[in-house]
Amino acid sequence: MKRNSIHVSLVWLLATALAAVPAARGPANVDETGLDARVKKFLSDHRGTWSDMNVPEVDGQTLYDLVVARKYTRALEIGTSTGHSGIWIAWGLSKTGGKLITLDIDARRHRQALANFEDAGVAPFIDARLADAHVLVPALEGPFDFVFSDADKEWYRNYFDALLPKLTKGGCYATHNVSSGPGGWNHEYYEYLLKVPGVDTTLDRRGGGLAISCKKDG
């Protein structure tokens, strides 16, 4: 993909997502479910309190938008932390009838994430596993139509290479903490993504740096 097309593709992708889910933002409306109200209250009550390498709110919203707009149902998250991103993804999956498998190797973070999933009301849409992703990711059968990777950065390419064959056509693989240009965080991984055949990669710089790699339908 040419560099000058990256921004255009990202604008189109996010605009499509946002147009498809107007109820995801702002105050409740007549179409809001009880779960919507519960998740919004939980996120509002915990705004500004997320640590432990959780994503910023703008990235959580983007993950939600992608899941809902593209009607994904089979999601995988590598790096649960204490559950902020998982709540956004699972909230989206509650709209599509899907489920999220999320992995973390740290027992304390895993326990806190389980409690947060319950409190937010999204636990029925999540299979949270305490596991070593280096071992479990290659063993997962798939297929997946959405993946969010936010674990150990030096292993990013290994995760991507293991999961790309299990990603459905039209599916998206989002990677957190990615930047472009020499000296940027994980920029070599981003350069690698741009060269993968059959994949279109865009970079959302608004939050923590979100590379969105979508597998072409053709």
Characteristic key phrases:
218 residues, alpha/beta, Rossmann fold, 8 helices, 7 strands, globular, disordered N terminus
Care to describe what's here?
- There is one protein chain.
- This protein is α/β, with parallel strands linked by helices and 218 residues long.
- The protein has a single domain (3-21, 56-215), classed as Vaccinia Virus protein VP39 (Rossmann fold).
- 43% of the residues lie in helices and 20% in strands.
- It has 8 helices and 7 strands.
- It has helices spanning 3-20, 34-45, 57-69, 84-96, 107-120, 133-139, 156-163, 187-194, and strands at residues 74-78, 99-104, 126-130, 144-149, 167-176, 199-204, 210-215.
- A 7-stranded mixed sheet has the order 3-2-1-4-5-7-6, with helices on both faces.
- Strand 1 (74-78), helix 4 and strand 2 form a beta-alpha-beta unit.
- Helix 1 crosses helix 3 and helix 3 (57-69) runs parallel beside helix 4 (84-96).
- The radius of gyration is 16 Å and the shape is globular.
- The model is unreliable at 1-12 and 15-30 (pLDDT under 50).
Pairing-aware structural class of the strands and helices? alpha/beta
* Fraction in beta strands: 15-25%
Q: What's the mean pLDDT score?
A: 87
The biggest sheet amounts to: 7 strands, mixed
Helix content: 40-55%
Look up the CATH topology. Answer: Rossmann fold
What is the CATH first-level class name?
Answer: Alpha Beta
Instruction: Tell me the Rg in angstroms.
Output: 16 Å
Number of domains: 1
CA-based shape? globular
DSSP helix count? 8
- CATH architecture annotation name: 3-Layer(aba) Sandwich
Assembly state of the chains shown: single chain
Number of β-strand runs: 7
Report strand order across the widest sheet: 3-2-1-4-5-7-6
Q: Give the name of the CATH superfamily.
A: Vaccinia Virus protein VP39
